[in-house]
Amino acid sequence: MYTAPQLLEQLNTYISEFSFIREPGTLYEPIKYVLSNGGKRMRPVLMLMAYNLYKENMAEAYAPAAAIEIYHNCTLLHDDLMDKADMRRGKKTVHKAWNDNIAILSGDAMLVLAYRYMEKCPPEYLHEILGLFNETVLGICEGQQYDMDFEQRNNVAATEYLEMIRLKTAILFAASLKIGGILGGASREDTDNLYNFGIHLGIAFQLKDDYLDVYGDSLIFGKNLGGDILSNKKTYLFIKALECANEFQTGEFKKWLKASDYDPQEKITAVVDIYNQLEIKEKCETKIQEYYTRALGDLEAVTVDSTKKIELKSLVQYLMRREL
């Protein structure tokens, strides 16, 4: 069995050996730029870990793992453009380093490249994996659209939000794990449990992101806290606060939602005060723990020796404790 850091190192080596010899360079340079940013590469590492539950020879797993990483970065490239983000992982976003049109086109090319690498799966698994990948890509687009739709609404229910993050974030965790299981020759029951594990892990991961934006340590988190509050982003904390608020608190919330001329720190402090009055921090922590517990239950149901699941369990524990 390999550890997550070992698999990440091997994947990084595989990706670093990519050679884009096609032209024009203005299409492919942004792709090299994005893929050189590194990061945790959690989704393809999860795929490799799931595969490693069943097989030790990792050779056939790196191409589909790379496909997942290329696709994930394609979505980030487009997300950064839609969000007008200036920086990602300490570097300028593609639309800032180049321009909007190049960001769109290079992102589109990355989607095609992701399919090129996914096609390298062994033929006996290719049809099932491509079907799963297609459904995942479409679902992520649906999740992104829901997220954008929510920007225009102040009545988003917590159930709607959880469904949105299931689509936008969790299904790529789930598909990555299931693809690893399929390639490893796992039973249908195991691949279904791996998929459910990914859904619950991915939802918990996004809820923790929401939580850290308000209650994280800014020195560890690496950016100023309260960014979601300043942008009126419909996070789980925001939605639960509106659900639980009394008439006065709702009025205060709406005042800050509509405000166009304000001191940023004053707005953050006022909204966090409401969160604290309503015990939103504790409610969010409870929901995060609920999904991590579900994830561990799904992993427990996977029918491989418990010693083989130690690395995945350790990863869950790490994600539960993470501060960035």
From TrEMBL:
<dbReference type="InterPro" id="IPR033749">
    <property type="entry name" value="Polyprenyl_synt_CS"/>
</dbReference>
<keyword id="KW-0479">Metal-binding</keyword>
<dbReference type="InterPro" id="IPR000092">
    <property type="entry name" value="Polyprenyl_synt"/>
</dbReference>
<protein>
    <submittedName>
        <fullName>Farnesyl diphosphate synthase</fullName>
        <ecNumber>2.5.1.10</ecNumber>
    </submittedName>
</protein>
<keyword id="KW-0808">Transferase</keyword>
<dbReference type="Pfam" id="PF00348">
    <property type="entry name" value="polyprenyl_synt"/>
</dbReference>
<dbReference type="InterPro" id="IPR008949">
    <property type="entry name" value="Isoprenoid_synthase_dom_sf"/>
</dbReference>
<keyword id="KW-0460">Magnesium</keyword>
<dbReference type="GO" id="GO:0004337">
    <property type="term" value="F:(2E,6E)-farnesyl diphosphate synthase activity"/>
</dbReference>
<dbReference type="GO" id="GO:0008299">
    <property type="term" value="P:isoprenoid biosynthetic process"/>
</dbReference>
<comment type="similarity">
    <text>Belongs to the FPP/GGPP synthase family.</text>
</comment>
<dbReference type="GO" id="GO:0046872">
    <property type="term" value="F:metal ion binding"/>
</dbReference>
